[in-house]
Design goal:
Elements (H helix, E strand, L loop, with lengths): L4 E2 L5 E4 L1 H4 L5 E5 L5 E10 L4 E5 L21 E6 L9 E18 L2 E11 L11 E3 L5 E8 L7 E5 L4 H10 L5 E2 L2 E4 L1 H7 L9 E6 L15 E5 L2 E2 L3 H9 L6 E8 L2 E8 L1 E2 L1
Antiparallel strand pairs: 1-2, 2-5, 3-4, 4-5, 6-7, 6-9, 7-8, 8-11, 9-10, 10-11, 12-19, 13-14, 14-15, 15-16, 15-17, 17-18
């Protein structure tokens, strides 16, 4: 059970991947009037815990997007959703942005993972709020409510909306999104400190591994490289890389700027399909 955001007038809904399941999964969507619809997950990414669902319905009113890059610590925000299920549906809580660019460590069934570049808020977020909007005082969506830290009070986290904008735009225009990929597993500075205490770098993201079936394999990129740029875009967070790649198409060429043993190397990569 979770929440979601209507993003087009013809039935596209943005929510969390852990709410809907993976791509091509089926789920049920209940609108505010109580009507229930069958939904199909047309895109999902477990790495950032986001998905887009399609229901067959028109005439809906989408929520406007704000800019998560413009948010400031201390500004007022509101979380909307269905905490604990339908009994408390359409609950609104308020608070402030407590911090930005947060990285949290999650452990589920002995599997360790990290969520990066999150918005931290003290607006109450409970189970069931997942996938609902975090909005500013203009009513614009600036984040997708995703997780609450059970060990602490008033520690809720949302995924910044900017990361998904280009995906939403492509789905609005074409009805689908084929996700391009460079085929690496990498961490930024906020995550690597959990894994390699002695590893220090000022900018870029650290390549942990390279997918042997991915676009970068055999192209000169190595484990341990630090990617500082993709084309002319500087990278400091994994979200910087994702946002840029989401704007591209499978088959496009990008240039990775690499720092390796104090040398700067440029490597061309043809984007593959994730």
């Amino acid at each position: 059970m979770g929440s979601g955001i209507i993003i087009t007038d013809d039935g596209y809904i943005l929510t969390n991947e852990h709410v809907t399941g993976d791509k091509y999964s089926k789920c049920y969507v209940t609108l505010e009037d109580g009507e229930e619809y069958s939904g199909t997950v047309i895109w999902a990414d477990s790495d950032i815990d986001l998905s887009i669902v399609k229901i067959t319905l028109t005439g809906l009113t989408p929520l406007p997007f704000g800019n998560s890059s413009d948010i400031r610590v201390g500004q007022t925000v509101y979380a909307i959703g269905n905490p604990i299920g339908l009994e408390f549906q359409s609950t609104v809580t308020s608070g402030i942005i407590s911090a930005v660019n947060r990285t949290i460590k999650l452990k589920e069934e002995d599997k360790l993972s990290y969520m990066e570049d999150l918005i931290q808020t003290d607006a109450t977020i409970n189970e069931g709020n997942s996938g609902g909007p975090l909005i500013n005082q203009k009513g614009e969506v600036i984040g997708i409510n995703a997780v609450k830290i059970e060990e602490g009070n008033h520690l809720g986290f949302a995924i910044p909306i900017d990361i998904i904008k280009s995906v939403v735009e492509k789905i609005k225009n074409t009805g689908s999104f084929i996700e391009p990929s460079i085929g690496i597993y990498a961490y930024d500075q906020e995550v690597i400190k959990y894994l390699e205490e002695d590893l220090k770098f000022d900018t870029g993201i650290y390549v942990v591994s390279i997918d042997k079936t991915g676009a970068s394999y055999g192209k000169g990129l190595l484990q341990g490289d630090i990617i500082t740029k993709i084309d002319d875009v500087s990278l400091n967070k994994m979200s910087d890389l994702r946002k840029y790649i989401y704007t591209k198409e499978v088959g496009d060429q990008v240039i990775l700027t690499i720092s390796r043993n104090k040398k700067i190397i440029e490597i061309p990569i043809i984007l593959g399909k994730k």
